[in-house]
Write a structure and sequence with these properties.
By secondary structure, the protein is mainly α. Helix content is 53%, strand content 4%.
């Protein structure tokens, strides 16, 4: 009963999204009971690892389970060092360089002159992801009414029902305007829609974008659709953008999340070292 009460409280008192509720439900499947002991929680994490879950996947489940355990304790204060209820520590995650598209690959996207309605829509989607740094789910949810063509701004519906307004370039404005004009799109219609004017699926877009990359002569990086977001973030900082402004554009609630996208490539580090090295000639 505690599980269902927790979900009802999250749904009606905190107004979390259906996706978040589903995340809780999946996480609770790992728990042996509604009142697990610390030993049972530790054994649960071991089972996760034995099943092949990576540290990042385990930590996602652990966050949901810790939220439930704190709620079940009945305390109203924020979870912290003073809490005596059972809880799990986050696993140490490996620090890896985030995958990005290379500059030559980005240039191939930008310079491509696609033919056909589907290919032009796909090309626009790639330009949109590269120019705004948004998530694929946010891009696929944009409606024509969300675009301010005069002020070069677009309103995105982010995670947790949090809207944000981000700028876009004049080049993207021209591409979106031509797309809307050719498709005779009304304000209520989705910017990226199927032939039946319904929402496009992420899996379908992943397949189509991968094929698009291969047609342009290269294999896409891992986590391909999210790599557009990584590419935007790295180049935003590389070209002098502020990490604080980047946080707002990406829609992150904390600066720590934004720093994950701030991994610079080796050539950037080499260029900086040449300027700061004590052995370099003045």
């Amino acid at each position: 009963m505690s599980f269902s009460n927790f979900l009802r409280a999250r749904q009606y008192l905190q107004n979390v999204t259906p996706a978040t509720l589903e995340w809780y439900r999946i996480s609770f499947q790992w728990l042996p009971s509604e009142t697990p002991t610390q030993a049972e929680l530790n054994e649960m994490v071991i089972r996760m690892r034995e099943k092949g879950l990576k540290a990042t996947g385990c930590n996602s489940l652990i966050r949901a389970i810790n939220a439930y355990l704190h709620w079940a304790s009945g305390t109203t204060r924020k979870c912290g060092a003073g809490c005596s209820h059972p809880q799990l520590q986050q696993l140490k995650e490996p620090q890896v360089v985030l995958p990005t598209f290379t500059e030559p690959q980005v240039r191939r996207f930008v310079s491509d002159k696609p033919k056909g309605k589907c290919r032009r829509r796909l090309h626009l989607l790639v330009l949109f992801l590269l120019d705004t740094g948004c998530r694929i789910s946010e891009a696929l949810g944009v409606r024509v009414r969300d675009i301010d063509f005069d002020n070069l701004l677009v309103t995105l519906d982010g995670k947790g029902r949090k809207q944000r307004v981000v700028p876009f370039s004049f080049e993207l404005r021209r591409a979106m305007f031509n797309h809307c004009k050719q498709a005779n799109q009304t304000p209520e219609r989705l910017l990226f829609e199927s032939r039946s004017q319904t929402a496009l699926g992420k899996r379908v877009m992943h397949r189509d974008v991968k094929k698009y990359c291969q047609d342009l002569g290269f294999e896409p990086p891992p986590r391909m659709l999210h790599a557009f977001r990584h590419t935007f973030a790295v180049n935003y900082l590389r070209r002098g953008g502020s990490v604080f402004h980047l946080q707002k554009v990406l829609g992150h609630t904390s600066l720590d999340m934004t720093r994950v996208y701030a991994n610079l490539v080796t050539t950037d580090l080499q260029a900086v070292h040449e300027r700061v090295s004590l052995l370099s000639k003045p």
